[in-house]
TrEMBL record:
It comes from the Bacteria. This is Iron-sulfur binding hydrogenase. InterPro entries: Ser_kin/Pase_Hpr-like_N_sf (IPR028979).
Amino acid sequence: MKLSELVEKCELRVITSLPLETDISDAYIGDLLSDVMGNAPSESIWLTVQSHMNILAVATIVGARAIVLCNGLHFEEATIKKAEETGVVLLESDETTFNLALKLLKSGLKG
């Protein structure tokens, strides 16, 4: 499924100015960076409440296509700037992580 479809169906706010036509094949939920590094599938969308710059390195290592910051939280400016440099799409949602995961499933993403 295209990331742009998920953004529209799940009402996600796009934070970075990067293309959204990448394919998303899975999702992962995690806030412990070592857990995400060890378990997140590539080509996934990652749901978290972490907003610091270290998440970009983790996303790059595992091949996550986008990071969604849940619970109405906002990314730090330094993280946004670095994400645009590294090509990681940042998204935000007012939904809880659980509710957003349900929306992703209902929108057709196969986990």
